[in-house]
């Protein structure tokens, strides 16, 4: 140990990857079964869990991973933290308005957000993702306070709130256009509440995760694998609480899914355009999610 | 071989003028009134064979209601190694409405079909509603006793500024002049960027080898959907057997719920039934209810602002012959 080492970007990225994949992360992951609970309730035998995992990795999880990959890519346009030290700089973004990089990242994030929304027809799945996104956002704000990408995400929320509803009918409660613009100064209010009292729209989990990946220095492939792994592990862990399965067997499922996770990562890692995000639907997953959201007797939230 | 079928319906001199171009399907006007038209689509030859690439382009002009009626469902036959495609490209201008209660699309054993449905709706502005479409899509995997071939069905619904050019180059050439550029001020700030287009619904159903996996289709053979686009259909109270939470005895089967309603994040919804056959689908009821609602919504806004639309006559006559020819058809199709 001679002098203080330079910031080790690779080491930090590796630690962040481990952290984000850890079920102990305080983001509410323990409330999730990745749709497994309603799937079992609908009659799927536990022996089919590996097939269920495969189905998800080819469909909804692919959309999720692609969204995170694109969000990461567009968030990078916001640029690095100004002083480069990785610590929250005093003041954050320049007070003289939003820098170009941040504005461009914000537009990209809003496009990504809207693209995900159009590819997620189930309101139950959208709601679950927003709820999880909230937990991730809380963490992101604390870990990367003042990072330009976080500022861009707040700006993106304003753009999404302003996006035309396309039916000529104003969004109920809309009108927080310029008023909300005062709010986004990074971390002003962790709840993301607009000045008007209306809640700013909550970004879905993959968008927040993509921004987190950009701040943490994760590669596109890392974030795609992370999403895939996280989904499989969520299913496997939830199975243990719902069915009599040996934990070692369930862990084996996760390892066995590795080729499918890698295939997913390869398929989405190069995406940069929100409109190119795949839209693979899984009709039964959507149906089960909707039914589950109206069920009171349940162990997992989703 | 040019297999493009075009149907355009435009307001002209107080009536609806239909602009038809036959392709693999032959469009025939059943009726045309002051604000509405009904057009039948009749197959001109055996469809759909391997190597067939059928394309249907529909353009509904401002303030027009167009109803498309099919006389028979479509069977995609074994292609002997050749794939087939079925592309539909729809554009609906402001205050227009397309109603297309399409008949079943059956994918026989050995068929390999790519379906794509592109819908571009004009956005609503402060003065009125945008374009709206009510589309039925009944995908049947296999005739009776068959497992069915491969099907990939893609849907992309965009809401675009009035006058924004449609990228796919589909419905051009119908001679309809676009609204002047810049007539949709809200779109200047649209985060969707220079395209002036916002995606409302994008879905890619890849129903190949993996479709039987739990979560995709399981053992369901039929994906029966109705898409209500550009307007939000009425509350699900009108849907019979609204899927209440499976309270005590959880159903131990994977499919037989009533039609499920998916509310899009925007003006639109999808109702979908997954099952072993279409006969048990409550989707017909949903189609009828949503169609009525879409017509009423259009009539409500189409009235005062511009040329008066004969709103009462819009709903009445078409509704009367809206009885369902599907049941008989299914027996021949599937």
UniProtKB/TrEMBL annotation, chain B:
Keyword Chaperone: yes
Molecular function via GO: nickel cation binding
Region (Disordered): 151-190, 232-255, 297-334
Keyword list, A-Z: Chaperone
Ubl conjugation as UniProt keyword: no
Segment forming the signal sequence: none
Protein name, UniProt field: Urease accessory protein UreD
Organism in which the protein naturally occurs: Cellulosimicrobium composti
